[in-house]
């Protein structure tokens, strides 16, 4: 039974879609990593400010 499209034609259409999906996934992952790094940097900066306010121990 022949549906109308060869496997090569179907693959040719799927490959660009898969590449696009992979690129979007990588972009999301990079954005998430950047956000995580920003939050971490902000937390460190906040911690450094708190360190300055501590009274020296005797």
The helix fraction, in percent, is over 70%
On the 0 to 100 scale, the average pLDDT is 84
The total tally of domains equals 1
* Tally of helical segments: 1
Structural class assignment: mainly alpha
- Main beta sheet strand tally, sense and closure: none
Separation of the first and last Cα atoms: 88 Å
Q: Unreliable stretches, pLDDT < 50, 5 or more residues? A: none
Note down, in words, how this protein is organized:
This protein is mainly alpha-helical and 58 residues long. It has one domain (1-52). Helix content is 81%, strand content 0%. The protein has 1 helix and no strands. The protein has one helix spanning 7-53. The chain is rod-shaped and about 85 Å long. The N and C termini lie far apart (88 Å).
SSE blueprint:
Layout: H1 7-53
Protein traits:
58 residues; mainly alpha; 81% helix
Condensed summary:
The chain is mostly helical and 58 residues long. 81% of the residues lie in helices and 0% in strands. It has one domain (1-52).
């Amino acid at each position: 039974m022949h549906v109308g499209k060869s496997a090569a034609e179907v693959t040719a259409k799927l490959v660009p879609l898969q590449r696009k999906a992979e690129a979007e996934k990588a972009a999301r992952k990079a954005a998430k990593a950047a956000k995580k790094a920003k939050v971490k940097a902000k937390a460190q900066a906040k911690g450094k400010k708190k360190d300055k306010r501590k009274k020296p121990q005797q």
